Amino acid sequence: LNKFKGVIVAFYGCYDGNGDIDPQAMRDLARYYKEAGVKGLYVGGSSGEGMLQSTAERKLVLEAVMEEVGSEMTIIAHVGAPSTRESVELAKHAEAVKADAVSAVPSIYYRLSPDSVEHHWRAMIDSTALPFIIYHIPQLTGFHLSTGLLKKLSALDNVIGVKISSESTYELQQFKAAGGPDFLVLNGPDEQYLAGRSMGADGGIGGTYGVMPELFLKLEQCIQTGDLESAREWQGKINEVISELLQFPSLYGGCKALLKLRGLDIGEPRLPLLPVTDRDQEAVARLHDKLTEY
Ligand code: SI3
Questions:
Q1: Residue 11 contacts residue 47 (beta carbons within 8 Å)
Q2: Exposed / middle / buried, residue 272 (Cβ in 10 Å: 0-12, 13-18, 19+)
Q3: What is the pLDDT of residues 30-47, one digit of tens each?
Q4: Quick one: how far is CA 255 from the chain centroid?
Q5: Does the complex come out with an ipTM higher than 0.85?
Q6: Could you tell me if the CB of 106 is within 6 A of ligand 1?
Q7: Is 83 exposed, middle or buried (0-12, 13-18, 19+ CB in 10 A)?
Q8: Other beta carbons within 10 Å of 116
Q9: Architecture of 2-213 per CATH?
Q10: How would DSSP label each residue in 267-280?
């Protein structure tokens, strides 16, 4: 399970000037993370805008990433889609292109019973031999995973862990206790990486890691060496950046504008996620300067 522990970047959607998927930008971005020392990528999740892309586009994205870094990094494919049918199709595709694991949110829009969500996840779990990581993000999906259902699913051979993006480290600890010592728990809220790790998370998957991978790697390093004081300092610096990023019209618009200043042009987020405005450019430049100081 070691390959899933530590800092896993939630990979961004990359588009060209027409708003189409840009496979070359995907490859450049994946290579950039590999060279920064990141161990793994989470492809097609919230930061990847998977829910705003067609099934064919989502396959194209995963293929580009796999071709570039599939043999060098841990690749987790987020395959959750509103329908079970498409989610299963994406899971099978992820297996065909040799991703290391699949992961999925519950279906979105309809108010679903726990049985329904269990059925949805089980269809994906049973459709491949790949490890499966449950994605719990109740503030976006509206579905709150109970510790009971988590315990039931964690007993299945393929289910190796949960990515928990709810902002409760108590819940994180409860999930770890329910899944047992070999069950992976991956922290979702980047602002609480240190808190999540100290409550039992084995690492994290995050949407802001992608603009400052070095800082999250340093933070993880301090945690591993037991240097809590420095870890708190790095988390503080990271949180200053996140707080500013959250002021932009969309988080991903801000992240993409920042990456552009780092020489990586991955386009704008797909609407309805808004890009930064001209007015925001100064703030983006200030943030970029701040990051280069660290
Ligand atoms: O791409 C992904 O699946 C994520 O990055 C999910 C992740 O947990 C994000 N949470 C939400 C609610 O979007 C965080 O990375 C989040 O962007 C960050 O903590 C800033 O608030």
A1: yes
A2: exposed
A3: 999 999 999 999 999 999
A4: 14
A5: yes
A6: no
A7: exposed
A8: 15
A9: Alpha-Beta Barrel (3.20)
A10: --PPTTSPPPPGGG
